[in-house]
Amino acid sequence: MTLKSLLVVDPVESVARHIADQCERLATERRITLDGRSALEQALAHAPEMIILSLETRNPEALELTHTLRQKMPEVFILATFRELSVPSMEKLGKLGIDDFIAQPLDFAAVFRAASRHFGVPFRRHDRHAVALDITRLDGVVIGRTRDLSLGGMLFDAFHPINPDESVLVDLGVPGKPIRVRCHILAVEGQAPMSVQARGEFDKLRGTEQKRLVDYLATVAKNNPASRT
Questions:
Q1: Cα separation, 34 vs 59, whole angstroms
Q2: Alpha carbons 204 and 99: distance in angstroms, whole number
Q3: 6, 176, 188, 228: least surrounded by Cβ within 10 Å?
Q4: Helix, strand, coil in percent for the chain, rounding step 5
Q5: pLDDT value of position 124
Q6: What stretch of H or E contains 210?
Q7: How far apart are CA 15 and CA 85, in angstroms?
């Protein structure tokens, strides 16, 4: 699923454009604006399902804008971004109409998860590919095999006990040299000795290993277009 319209409100144009670009798979139409007055005009004109709103927004400030939006568009999902925010302030802002909060600089996987929670449907930031790769611990023990793989994470059959919120450093058995990734386990379904599946998200994947995974998935997509799930 893809939203029809998303509005990004941030006083720094380069930041607003970057957010809009990274949310390409979240919404078909992505608009940006730099101040509250323009944000209200854009929202009323284009009726976005979701607004990513910087709490640094001015003219008017984010709180006043939120209050007005809630009066005129009660169903819109407002996701606030912030650089510094206390828990009491977050609770107060939530009561005033902000639905969810994410710290800057944004973790875009978290943005997609927030949208998935709110709308009750999965939004995928990356294409998934049905590939079967051995997952190996650093001591050489094979602990699982992938069912699908993306630039953001993987679904895999777990051969050894694994728990939600666990963080594991593993090697993905791609052809040639394995790709080393740290994976945060989001969910586990099933219980040994029956089949156990786990969903993991890659943590801070960057640099050479990220490029190698990008290249591998591009090769998979080219050689087997039907691998996309």
A1: 9
A2: 26
A3: 176
A4: 30, 30, 35
A5: 81
A6: helix 207-223
A7: 19
**Model confidence, pTM:** 0.71
Question: In whole angstroms, what is the distance from residue 82 CA to residue 152 CA?
Answer: 23
Contact present, 47 and 24 (Cβ < 8 Å): no
Indicate if the alpha-carbon torsion angle 216, 131, 117, 161 is positive or negative. negative
AA letter at 70: R
Spatial neighbors of 84 by CB under 8 A, at least 6 apart, are none
Q: pLDDT tens for residues 63-93?
A: 999 999 999 999 999 999 998 888 888 888 8
On the CB side of 34, how many CA atoms lie within 13 Å of its CA?
Answer: 6
Question: d(Cα 100, Cα 27) in Å, to the nearest integer?
Answer: 18
Domains, the chain, in order of start with CATH, read 3-119 (3.40.50.2300), 134-227 (2.40.10.220)
Query: How far apart, in whole angstroms, are the C-alpha atoms of residue 132 and residue 147?
Result: 6
Q: What is the CA radius of gyration of the chain?
A: 20
